[in-house]
Amino acid sequence: MKTTNKVAIYVRVSTTSQVEEGYSIDEQKDKLEAYCKIKDWKIYDVYVDGGFSGANTQR
User: Which residues form the signal peptide (predicted)?
Assistant: First the structure.
């Protein structure tokens, strides 16, 4: 009997330079969802962290 792995996806961007370099939240999510599909993993949930840099404590 084949077992199905359930996984959660966590995506995060904390700087505008990450977005400019192709690490946007949507791009990360798309790539991770595609990877899960290849592996035949069931996505349990997607967690999105709009991101605050740890260097900036003023939130």
Answer: none
Residue type, 9: I
Phi-psi region of 35 (alpha: psi -120 to 50; beta: other; left: phi over 0): alpha
26-57 pLDDT tens trace? 999 999 999 999 999 999 999 998 766 556 55
Sorted by where each begins, the domain ranges of the chain are 6-49
H or E element at residue 47: strand 42-49
Question: Which residues are identified as catalytic?
Answer: 14
Measure the CA–CA gap between 4 and 36, rounded to whole angstroms.
Answer: 11
Question: Quick one: CA torsion of 13, 14, 20, 26, rounded to 10 degrees?
Answer: 20
Neighbouring-strand partners of residue 45: 8
